[in-house]
Amino acid sequence: MRQPFVIAHTSDLHLDGKGGRLSATGPLLSALTTRMKEFSDVPAKILLVTGDLVETPDKQSMQEADQFLKTVSEKAIFTDVVIIAGNHDVKAKGLIGWKDDFYDRFKAPRTTDTIRRGGLELVLLDSNRGLLAKGHVPATSYDEMVENAADISEILRNEIRTGPDDRDGPTIRVLALHHHPLPLPEGEGKKVYGIPDEPFMYMVSSATFLDAAMSLDVSLILHGHRHVTGLTRYSVPSRTFEAGRSENFWRTVYVLSCPSSTGADCDAGFNIITLDGYDRFERAGYQLSISRYTRPRNAGAFEPLDRAAHGRLQFPVGEETYRDIALQIQDEVLRAKDLDRHQIAEYARRSLVRKAFLSREEHAWPYAFYAYVVTYKLWGRPLQHLFVQLALKIDQNAAFAIIEQLTGLVDLAARVLGVSGSELDDFRSRAQTNQRDFVRALPAGPAAGVNMDAIQLTRRKYLKTMDDAAAVLCGARLGLGTYGEELTG
After folding, report:
1. Which residues have C-beta within 8 Å of that of residue 431, sequence separation ≥ 6?
2. Residue boundaries of the structural domains of the chain
3. 464 and 386 Cβ atoms separated by less than 8 Å
4. Considering only 201-205, 293-297, 477-481, 485-489, which range has the smallest mean pLDDT?
5. H or E stretch covering 285
6. Domain 5-317's class?
7. C-alpha span between 34 and 210 (Å, rounded)
8. N or C end of the chain, less CB within 10 A?
9. Which pLDDT does position 162 carry in this prediction?
10. d(CA 54, CA 84)
11. pTM for the whole thing?
12. 261, 236 contact by CB (below 8 A)
């Protein structure tokens, strides 16, 4: 199982246009060059800077950052250089004013962005909307992050195609931002002018941020800002936990901090992150491999921080090949409070405007069956309950009509694939969190003797009836059953 990617995680270089910090990038790049040699055959080699590339957004600092990035490019050891803005990149001395030149100059995301390389989804998030040096992520950025993740999942489904083994290895989602979502003991001891500086530094609504990250199946969060090393594990009970599967009760995300990589008021450091495959005791799996490096007192060479074998810390992670939008919505609904009709209708729309209700290609039937089952479970439980709570008879009738059509679609897809009886009951009741396992157990295509012309007419009838009901809930027709390419979002 090859390593699909490697991330060299750096942060808080604080280049100030005076040459001091720039000279400190020499030992950093030398250490990175040495470390990256062992990954020469890895297809995706990413240098990530999680903010505060410059000390202040002035001309001299920016020019020095350009010089550093030019040196990185000349060394040709990375396939990608990814930069997130920190508070010092957009505010004078990281505290006051606002200057957004940094975003365009260094291609940093203003809200969110996503980099896809091999088995990696690297979600980039700007967290600079807080007062002074505090971090804050606006609600619109949360929405955009969720929307991007759903779009990526749809792309992944297309890449998986018809065979269970078309993809080489798993997909893992990593989220990167500047500010720290969890408190760091070392950071809380820092002072400015004799007073603790943490009240000016923390991330506002960090619990909301972590909740959103976990709803997207993020396995690892990378950040900088506090100039300290730190590795923590954050776990909460899964709200979609299924009885009898205790290993799925906890949802966990790892949070990894990077100190200043040039040693601004701390020991310099950086992290190396890879995804490794293993095969032990006849059981294959995947694990995050994290190597932390430090340069004590900013003298001499970088050395491993941890005493683990080869300096590598390894943590098991699940294989998340595809996050279905229905599962995403179910998780959001279960976590939301006081939803109004407009919000519920938007969840309804998102669950139905998708390729599974538009594509009519025969090889897509196993995936269509999966989508019908998970969407039926979404509507049969949380969405139906929400519409009943609204106490509007017209909405309830429309919701029941959609559930009825989804039931018909599940049965129709099962008939196409030759699945019936107890086998069909098993597919309806089994856990749907892993699309690959679900689809792998299904026939690859239509059973022999199935009249596909008649099937397509029946499917279109179900979808058109569902579209009529959706128009009542959403205020407009969604185009279900029209097979329009423009409606496959």
Report:
1. 242, 245, 248
2. 5-317, 338-487
3. no
4. 485-489
5. strand 283-295
6. alpha beta
7. 34
8. C
9. 33
10. 11
11. 0.69
12. no
